[in-house]
Amino acid sequence: MKMQRALAAASLAVAATVLPLVVAAPAQASAKDCRDYLRPNYIVGPKVTEACAQTGINGYTGCLQRLLNAGVRVEHAAVACNRR
Predict the structure, then answer these.
(1) 54-65: pLDDT as tens digits
(2) What is the pTM of this model?
């Protein structure tokens, strides 16, 4: 009985540690995702790299404005900034 409880506690501890990592991983977006989305249609230089790297409370707005200033079409900029 003690062995079953110990195994159950160990299993629960492992699940509590691993499950958030497995569930959260696909939702992680990055500046690389933003750049990769734009790469087929645009030159990804310093301006695009800087735009995709915007973070914080104004990150989306900063990303969008910088991409528009760099000549990226609004529909592409909106998708790319959502991927960063």
Answers:
(1) 998 899 999 999
(2) 0.66
